[in-house]
Task: inverse folding
């Protein structure tokens, strides 16, 4: 029972350690592997009492370079996603503006056509009234002139 418990605790520690390295590497497995190698090498060197400062510095530099590359890749991916989202929003706004412009154009055309029809109707009405008045006045004038000349019979 004690052996089983020890295996469970040891397995949990290994999983937690792996998760720690993966998390600290930003989810990049190769960076996590480099960090683990570096830490294991440093721990071994300390146990043996060896100073591996140049090798350690080189490994640390490799780890930092990979971390920086991974961070840069994540930043580029984030910016690309934001640009795509902004492009979608701009495209939608352009379509919306075009639609509104078309709607306003239709409304303007309808308004102009309605004004044209109303004006034509009013002009026709005024012309008809003018024709009736001219015809009536002409008939009255003819009648008056004819009566002066003795053609009218009243």
Result:
């Amino acid at each position: 029972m004690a052996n089983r418990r020890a295996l469970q605790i040891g397995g949990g520690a290994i999983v937690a350690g792996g998760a720690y390295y993966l998390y600290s590497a930003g989810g990049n497995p190769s960076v996590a592997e480099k960090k683990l190698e570096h830490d294991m090498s440093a721990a071994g060197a300390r146990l043996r009492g060896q100073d591996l400062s140049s090798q350690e510095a080189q490994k640390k530099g490799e780890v930092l370079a990979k971390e920086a590359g991974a961070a840069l890749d994540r930043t580029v991916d984030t910016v690309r996603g934001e640009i795509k989202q902004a492009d979608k929003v701009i495209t939608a706004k352009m379509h919306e503006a075009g639609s509104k412009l078309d709607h306003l154009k239709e409304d303007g055309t309808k308004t102009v056509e309605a004004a044209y029809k109303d004006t034509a109707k009013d002009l026709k009405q005024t012309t008809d009234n003018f024709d009736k008045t001219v015809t009536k006045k002409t008939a009255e004038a003819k009648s008056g002139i004819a009566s002066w000349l003795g053609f009218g019979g009243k």
Notes: Residues 53-148 form the longest helix (96 residues). The mean pLDDT is 80.
